[in-house]
Amino acid sequence: xxxxxxxxxxxxxxxxxxxxxxxxxxxxxxxxxxxxxxxxxxxxxxxxxxxxxxxxxxxxxxxxxxxxxxxxxxxxxxxxxxxxxxxxxxxxxxxxxxxxxxxxxxxxxxxxxxxxxxxxxxxxxxxxxxxxxxxxxxxxxxxxxxxxxxxxxxxxxxxxxxxxxxxxxxxxxxxxxxxxxxxxxxxxxxxxxxxxxxxxxxxxxxxxxxxxxxxxxxxxxxxxxx
Length: 226
Description:
Helix content: 25-40%
Distance between the termini: 103 Å
Structural class: alpha+beta
Number of strands: 11
Strand order of the largest sheet: 4-6-2-8-9
């Protein structure tokens, strides 16, 4: 059974150096995020926490990304840029800062349909400990529709055994599929190499046969001259 804690969200007790959104049930596709904004206000009002390159500023962090995207593409307030995860069992994006900070509200705009998550965890990292999670269900994946999460309305929870089993099954399935693809590619290379060797052998035979015909012709011509 999932363990739930019903205490209220107290900002001073929820400081952390890293906060992230993590897909609750991994997608079979990549997760594509157009824009994600983290707020210190409880209703997502005011300016979001802004990321930049300064050492002491907020920095976007994410799981393995798809080709051609970075987590900066999801925090730049633009709709033309995005961050896309790779097709792995662990898909997440968040903010990191050296000094601990609180997140009280999150806004998310993700690409629709197969690249969208319908359930997420908002997680904060404990130094030397595990992640504390708040589950966010019914996340909107309609085009151009921002989803908003007010953290104070959610109970704190620990990921359930069922979720852990699901993650493990998906990870193992992906690993098996990756291994099968690698074996198929290896077999394809083996066949291609064998075909190339056969072609080289055929060409060698043809060259040898041509040389043999030339030797016989020269021998015949020399015999005729004598």
